[in-house]
Design goal:
By secondary structure, the protein is an alpha/beta fold. The protein is built from 9 helices and 9 strands. The protein is globular and about 45 Å long.
Length: 277
């Protein structure tokens, strides 16, 4: 457990070093991802798709916070967004994103920044701010994150979050039944947790001993934390859904029919209202 008073930006900076290492896996699959996108691929989960239909009718600019290697960002372009912007703390991840957009001649811009310091030149320019699928756990200040999303949006622009449900944090990943994890098994846990290494179902060991890798910090916000941060930033929550679908193989040994009995993901849509006269 890390001190709750630790500077969020310092923890983000350290976690960014871990993502610099993890980018090696994204670089390895770069050609395949370009081919996927060139064929019109859209890297979304089924619960997202009904809410992203007709994007071309209203989304001039989509900003993707924590865009990593840019595949999801460019999927928004394939979905109809006229231009896309990705923001991420890892320059190496953005190198992957830039290579993809250049190969596709896509209208994309990439900014290397702590999300909390997203450049103010982007303020009020987004019809859509998109984030999720393993993003919010890397944010050490959920209220500051929500404030950034709000300032990026135009009036009537939408924040779209599709994320792992906070309940998935508490279960033992290796168990074949729903058992509380000995470290993470508290839904109301406060404060970040530092850990080295990546699970095999995602990044893997990168060919190194776990102890040689950079430490990264996660903070699991419960559903109330996220919703109240969005409301506190002045946005109007228009939809909140919980889903049994996973976006990655979070529980490799848990029978699928058991996993689907608890929420695995949630979707949140909020709108930036016009100022009152």
């Amino acid at each position: 457990m890390t001190d709750e008073t630790a500077d969020p930006r310092e923890l983000h900076k350290q976690t960014g070093l871990a993502w610099q290492e993890a980018a090696a896996e994204y670089e390895r699959e770069l050609a395949d991802r370009i081919d996927f996108l060139r064929k019109g691929g859209r890297n979304f989960c089924p619960p997202e798709l009904p809410h992203l239909e007709g994007l071309g009718d209203w989304c001039q600019r989509a900003i993707h916070l924590q865009c990593a290697g840019g595949t999801d960002t460019l999927s928004l372009w394939n979905q109809g967004a006229h231009e896309v912007v990705g923001v991420d703390i890892s320059s190496r991840m953005l190198g992957c994103a830039r290579a993809k957009s250049e190969a596709l001649d896509a209208p994309a811009e990439w900014y290397c920044s702590d999300i909390l310091d997203t450049p103010h030149e982007l303020d009020g320019t987004a019809d859509l701010v998109y984030t999720g699928r393993g993003a919010l756990c890397w944010m050490m200040d959920i209220e500051a994150w929500a404030a950034v999303a709000a300032r990026l949006l135009r009036c009537n622009g939408r924040l779209f979050v599709f994320e792992g449900h906070p309940l998935t944090w508490i279960w033992d990943r290796e168990a074949s039944e729903l058992l509380l994890d000995p470290v993470y098994g508290d839904y109301f846990q406060r404060g970040p947790i530092g850990e080295k290494g990546w699970c095999d179902e995602y990044i893997g060991d990168l060919g190194q001993d776990k102890d040689a890798l950079q430490i990264k910090y996660e903070h699991q916000w419960n559903l109330g934390d996220v919703v109240n941060a969005v409301i506190g930033a002045g946005l109007v929550v228009e939809r909140l859904e919980e889903h049994p679908e996973q976006f990655w193989e979070a529980f490799p040994n848990l029978p699928a029919d058991i996993a689907r009995r608890v929420p695995q993901t949630f979707l949140l849509i909020a709108r930036k209202p016009a100022p009152r006269e």
